[in-house]
Each structure stands twice: as C-alpha cells, then as structure tokens.
Amino acid sequence: MSTQWILAIIVLLSLIIWFAQLLWIYVRSQQQGRDPFGPVSGAAVFFIAAGPMTLFLPNVVDRVADFWENIFQPEMMDRFKSSESGEYSVPRLIVAGKTIPLTQDRVQIGRYENNDLMLDHPTVSAYHAEVNLRPDGRYELMDRDSRNGTRINGTIVRAAVLKHGDQITLGALTIHYLVGSDVDAAPDDDIPVEAEERS
C-alpha cells in the first residue's frame, strides 16, 4: 500500500472521529440543558481533540464558542444589550435549579423529548407552552392548549408578555423568568425535574 493511501485513510479516520466527537458533544449538551451549538462550535476547532477539550477544559471551549458567537451573531447579541448600562443580559428561565438562556427566537416547552425545553413531570402536557421573541425584543409566553393550564404569577393565561421576575406555572411546576444581569436568586423548586434545552 502506497504512502498516499495510508495518508488518505488516516485523514478519513480522523474526520470520522472528529464528526463522532462533535455529535457526542451535541447530544451531551442537550442532555445538560444547554444550547448545543455553543459547545459544538467551541470544540470543533480542536479537531480530533474536541472531546477531550470538552471534558477537561470546558472553559476554553466556552471562550472559543463566545468568540465565534460575537463574530457571526453580533446582531443577535445586540438585542440583549441594556440601553442604560451597556451590559449584556440574556433573558433566562430557571427551573429545578437549572438555568436555560433564551438565545432562540422560539422555545417549545413540554414533557416530550422533541421540545426545546423538556420538563419530565406528569402535570406538564406533551406540548405545554412556548416562549416566542416578539419584534419589540420582549418574550411572550403562549399556552398550547395544555391539559393543566399555564399561569403567570398565579393568573391563568393563554398568552402574555413576560417581565423580569415572573413566575410561570405549568401544571404543578414553577419556572422563573429573569432578565436582569443581577443574580436574583430564584428559589429552587422542590419538585425533581429534568430540564433539557433542545435546538
């Protein structure tokens, strides 16, 4: 076998290993309730060391992901910039001690795994609600004909614009919506729930 064939096989195997690692990082991020595109874009530059970098140096991977995000999506980040302080403040949902940043224009919430935010609780409907980004930059919560209803601060709603500090109740589960850059500690819910963010 010639040297060229050996080199071609090595390159092909390296690409397969790299792709398999990126796929693993994508699935792992979803299971951790994170937006998978950040970790994948941050790890991809390390080629076949993508997996080890994600496991042993996650901060480096996150910094690379932030770098790519600032280059390729500055207009998306501008919508999170406060006109008063100039600081970035990504709106987020807090559920069962997990923080889910709202970096997508639409987040579907429900019990089934194909939701962007999967809530494994019997009182949550299969496709319970969704959070949509409005043209004015605010997020709106919409109930999707759920069985147990959707409440904001105790009031049943079909659709409502979210405000900082709102408590969203889906069935018997409470989610906190925060916008400010301050870390207003939302109380941890006692209900054990697995939250996964999917894209």
- The portion of residues assigned to helices is 25-40%
Terminus-to-terminus distance? 44 Å
State which percent range the strand residues make up. 15-25%
Average pLDDT figure:
81
Q: Low-confidence runs (pLDDT<50, min 5 residues)?
A: 182-199
List the strand order in the largest sheet: 2-1-11-10-7-8
Shape descriptor: elongated
User: How many whole angstroms does the radius of gyration measure?
Assistant: 20 Å
Backbone structural class: alpha+beta
Number of helices: 5
Strand elements, count: 12
Question: Largest sheet, described in full?
Answer: 6 strands, antiparallel
- SSE sequence, one letter per element: HHHHHEEEEEEEEEEEE
Features:
5 helices, 199 residues, single chain, 6-stranded mixed sheet, alpha+beta
Q: How would the blueprint of this fold be written?
A:
Layout: H1 3-31, H2 37-44, H3 50-56, H4 58-72, H5 74-78, E1 92-95, E2 98-101, E3 106-110, E4 117-119, E5 129-133, E6 139-143, E7 150-152, E8 155-156, E9 159-161, E10 167-170, E11 173-178, E12 195-197
Parallel strand pairs: 3-4
Antiparallel strand pairs: 1-2, 1-11, 3-5, 4-12, 5-6, 6-9, 7-8, 7-10, 10-11
Helix pairs in contact: 1-2, 2-3, 2-4, 3-4
Q: How would you describe this protein?
A:
It is a single chain. It contains 5 helices and 12 strands. With 199 residues, the chain is α+β, with helices and mostly antiparallel strands. The strands form 2 sheets. Strands 2-1-11-10-7-8 form a 6-stranded antiparallel beta sheet, with no helix packed on it. The protein has a 6-stranded mixed beta sheet with strand order 9-6-5-3-4-12. Helix 1 packs antiparallel against helix 2 (37-44), helix 2 packs across helix 3 (50-56) and helix 2 crosses helix 4 (58-72). It is elongated. Mean pLDDT is 81; it is low at 182-199.
